[in-house]
Write a structure and sequence with these properties.
Layout lengths: L2 H16 L5 H8 L3 H13 L15 H11 L15 H19 L5 E4 L4 H9 L10 E4 L12
Helix pairs in contact: 1-3, 2-3, 5-6
Length: 155
């Protein structure tokens, strides 16, 4: 196959996949190619710069910083909450509480134990932000440090 014909095929496969949202199997069938060949052509298109993928991160989302924190401190996950320009402590607590509630609701698995070390205004904001949900197995919440604190304690 001539180089220009190969280039046309690479571009055609790339457009079918990325612009027309066709599955690799459908492209392979339509063009009489194997699915591994379609996959190879898509990789070739990336390598040649025909396909360039970019993600537009919305303002207030800090996935780069989260990934840096995960890597640096060997964490399983990290969430950065945008409170820049805010001085209202209650607003900041609610924002952090909402992010923590979302994370806890999505990360909690059946038969897990959640340990609470002390009460704080931020922890209370987490509880306030949680949504009622069906129980996930035998999830238990336990106190792991000292006496019972006051929910009105400082964050």
């Amino acid at each position: 196959m001539a180089q220009i014909d190969e280039m046309r095929l690479v571009v055609r496969v790339a457009r079918m996949y990325y612009e027309w949202d066709m599955k690799q199997a459908a492209i392979a069938k339509q063009l009489g190619l194997s699915q591994p060949t379609v996959s190879r052509l898509l990789q070739q298109a990336k390598d040649m710069g025909i396909i360039r993928i970019s993600v537009s991160v919305p303002q207030g989302v800090y996935t780069d910083l989260e990934e840096q924190l995960v890597k640096r401190f060997r964490l399983r996950d990290a969430i950065v909450v945008d409170c820049s320009g805010e001085s209202d402590e209650r607003f900041i607590e609610r924002q952090i509480g909402a992010a923590a509630a979302y994370y806890l609701e999505s990360a909690l698995r059946p038969n897990e134990v959640v340990g609470i070390s002390s009460w704080s205004a931020t922890l209370l904001a987490l509880v306030d932000a949680m949504h009622p949900a069906p129980r996930k197995g035998d999830v238990r919440v336990v106190q792991i440090l000292g006496g019972v604190g006051s929910p009105s304690a400082e964050a």
